[in-house]
Structures are given as C-alpha cells and as structure tokens.
Specification:
The complex is a heterodimer of chains A (258) and B (318). Chain A is an all-alpha fold. Chain A has helices at 2-17, 23-41, 46-79, 83-87, 93-126, 136-159, 164-178, 181-185, 194-206, 216-220, 227-253. In chain A, α5 (93-126) packs antiparallel against α11 (227-253). Chain A is globular and about 60 Å long. By secondary structure, chain B is of the alpha/beta class. In chain B, α2 (100-109) crosses α3 and α3 packs across α4. The radius of gyration of chain B is 25 Å and the shape is elongated. Chain B starts with a strand and ends with a helix. Classes of the chains: A mainly alpha (258), B alpha/beta (318). At the A-B interface, α1 and α4 of A face β6, α2 and α4 of B.
Chain lengths: 258, 318
Amino acid sequence: MRNIRVVAANTFREAVRDRVLYNLVFFALLMMAAAILVGQISIDIEQQVIISLGLSAISLIGILIAVFLGVALVSKEMDKRTLYALLAKPVKRWEFLLGKFFGLVLTLAVNTVAMAAGLYAALLTVKHPLEREDAYILVAVYLILLKLAVIVALALLFSCFTTPFLAILFTAGLYGAGLFATDLRTVRGVNIDPSSLRLVRGVSYVIPNFQNFDVMGAVVHGHGIPGSFVLQATLYAALYIAIVLTGAAVVFSRRNLK
Amino acid sequence: MAQAAIETENLSKNYPYGFLNLKKRKSLEDLTMRVEEGEVFGFLGPNGAGKSTTIKLLMRLIFPTAGTARILGKSIEEVSMHASIGYLPEQPYFYDYLTAYEVLDYFARFHGLTTSDRRTRIQTMLQKVGLEGAKKIQLRKYSKGMLQRVGLAQAILHDPQVVVLDEPMSGLDPLGRREVRDIILGLKREGRTVLFSTHVLSDAESMCDRVGILVGGKLRGTGAPGELMDIQAQGMEIQFELSAENKNLALLARAVRAGDNYRVQVPEPELYKALDELKAAGARIHSVTQIKPTLEEYFMNLVAADRAQASAVEVNGR
C-alpha cells in the first residue's frame, strides 16, 4: 500500500505542478459567462441551461484530462526514462500502475469537485435559494467521476502496449462505442444475419457501458436518481476497472523498457 | 565457494526487429560471470557491446531471452531484494517538476525510512554529491552533470550493499569525475560491491579490482586489469649504456639510441641470451622491464579482432 500511496501522491503533485488544474479557470469563466447570458435571455429555464451546460463541461473537460493524461501516465515515464530508477527500487510494477491510476483519479476528483462548486455558484447567481433537487447534481457529478475513472483505466491499459497516439485513438474510440453499448444490445434488423447480431451483442457486453453513468437528462429536469442505480453503477465501474487494471498489470509486468 | 554479490549464468538477450519482428538481434550472448562481494567491478566495452543491456537485465527493466541472474544469492525476480541495490541509469532523467530534495525524498519513501531518517540521509547525500546549494531548484533547471549527481545520490541514499552504475562518469567535468571516483572508492572502503560500466579505460584501471570486457554481446575477458595485461605481455625491454662501438653486437641493429644509452626489446625467452651478449660487449645494464599493453591496447585489440571476425562471417555468408 505504501508504494501505491507514494506513486499516487507524486502523480497528483505532477498534475498540480504541470498546471493541469488551470482548466478550472476556463470552467469558471464559462460558468460566469453562462450565468450572465442565461439571466438575460432565458425564460424559466435558466436552471436547466446552467445545469446542462455545467455538467457537460465537467464531463468534457474530465474526459480530455482522463484520455490525454491517462495515456501519458506510463508512456511519458517510459519515454523520459524516469521509470528506470523507480523500478530498480523495491517496487512491483503493478504497484506503480495502481499508484499512477489513483493519482490521476485523485486529480480528476479534485478537479471535478471544484467544477461542481463552480456550477453551484453559477446556479446561485441565477436562482435563489438552492432547492432539494439541486442536490441531485452531486449524484451526476459522482457518476461522471466514475466514468472518468473507467476511461483512465482504459487509457492506462492501452498505453502499456502501444504508442501514445494509438492509445489515445483506442481509448477515445472505446469511449465513443461505450456511449451506445445499451443500444447495441437491443439492435434489431431484418437484414442482419443472426451470427453478426450475436457478435454485436457480445461486443456490447465487453465494451464499457458509459450509458450506466449518464443521468444528466434526469438531473436537469430535477428528477431523483434511485440509490440502487447509483450502487449498480458503482459496482459496475469497480468491476470493470479491476478487470482492465489487471490486464494492464499483466501486460506491463513483462514489458521490456527501451 | 562464497556467495557472489552478482552472478549470471548464460544470460542472453535477443531483440526482435524487422517486419513482424521475425528477425532477432543478439544483444547479449551467454553471459556467465561473478562479481564478488566487496569488489569494484568495471564493465568495459564499445557502444552496443551489451553493457547497458546486462545492467538493465540485472535491474529487471528488461527480461532475458535465456539464462538466470542472482544478486546477493537471490533471483533478480524477487522485488524485495532490490532494497539492497542502488542503481544509477545511463544518462539519468528524473521528474523535472521536483527539486533535488523532493526527488530524493520520493525515492527514499520506497525504502520505508522514517521522516527524520530521510531528512538526515538526504542532507548527507546532497553534501556528498555537491548539490546542497541547489537542493531547492527544480530539476528542469539542472545541467546534465547535476542530474548525474542526483542520480548518484538516489542510488546510494539507502545504504545499498550492491551499487550498479551505468556510465557514472558520463556528462561530468573533471572535478565531478574525481568526486564520483572518490565516492566509488569510499563505497569500496565501506565493503560494498560496485559494478559500473564505462568507456573511460583509465577510470577502470585506477578503480577496479577486476574488469570484464564485453565485445559484440560476448564476454571476452575477465580479471584484474594487471592480470589481463600480463596475459598479453609483449616481451622484455632492456635499457643499457655502451660507450665503445661494437659492430659485432647484433642487438644494436634493433636498439633505439640516445647518446650512449640504448633501449632494445627482446622476446622473453631470449632475455638471458641477450643479457649475456651485452655483458660480453661491456655494456652497463640500467634496467630490464616487462612490456605490457595498456588496458586500452588490450581493449582495442579485442574490438579489432571482433570486428574482423564479424566481417569474415559477413563475407562467408554472402
């Protein structure tokens, strides 16, 4: 545990010193501009517009950080050879990977929480006071964070065996496919032969189902999210991340460094 | 036989290359060697000889195609054993957003040292490598030589029993080289084992108990620098003084003259015969010394032989 903690803390420190959290300034400006504009032009839908825009921005910024920094977690260490001195210490390779994973997830958590605070601040400027339904935004933010953790795990896996460019492509591609995982399971068509249908359905269960984390529509309209849904999404993310990271550890444990 | 500090048996490494990685390039072939506890062992060889490959294999940064390696009696696969090893990579590079103090503190944490212990050791190390004045500067502002010093500090921070240094003199100015030499000799005095690779033969000659010479991925010779050169003793040199001309003395034909003083080289079996002739001619013998090649000559001969062999194989293979 100690080794994982040390690597994670250093990964977080790297993100802070490399000014990754500067994206918060962009988010703050976006929220301020949205609050001012919405206050002037919207009629009774200020709240929906702000929540929708805020959650979309939290998700998009988080995805960009998760994909690009997730891929760089291992590939940068290999390219710059900072990994050499570390792996000669009594550190197992899977401990290094887990440390990197948790370090970036911690960075994303801090980033996401800060952006959620910004979203609430924007809401306060267009609507006084906050209501009970506004607490559902926190559930949506939590599910976005789970989604980001899955993306980080995927980026980490791909960066263990391919080039950074391909790892970014694979991660982004899988994210895109994962947005339609549920739709793929229910696909029907008279012109599709049964074996292809079975293949598509099989793939839909293997790729990550990012629809499991999407509650934005409900939250924007002030609908509650059942606890069972949140629990199910949490267990799904935990299991998927565990499987992906195990794969990454297996690949990385026998990887020859340059 | 006492336990070796470092021991390899038929250690080999092939790198795949070409389309679909179907071809193999042998980077290291059947390396079997021992480094005894407490000795300073120098790894010599030209670029691409397999020195860094061997060190990376020992540090489990790459994995062998065949063979085994043990450090302090334990398989290199045992991660816990790495607590007793210090390693300086070739042209080291560390997290450039950290200061020298922070990077040493980061590495020290993997050894489970307490906060106060870490602080004391880091201070000592920074002093030892001459970076105390720059400890609060981020490594992105460090020169190559300064990074080398940080690398050396992290390698010996935790008092390892075995220290492996890949080109420790690289990038250092003469003062830095001398400091590294002093540190290596200090480690030897403390009874630690040091394995280092170098291109600088004089460093190996002055510091190593033994050297191993790698050429073309094969170990071509191991032994004390003096021993290796004895193997190839090239004859004897006699220095003498002869005032009267003596045209019957055949040795004079191949002697180098400076006034009345002469220097002549003779094969070792002919030494006594030559001395008898000189005595009979009335010469005064000043000295008789064995002619040995320098380590550099020995090394260059091995490299030249290897390249000639490689060319021959290429020609025959056509």
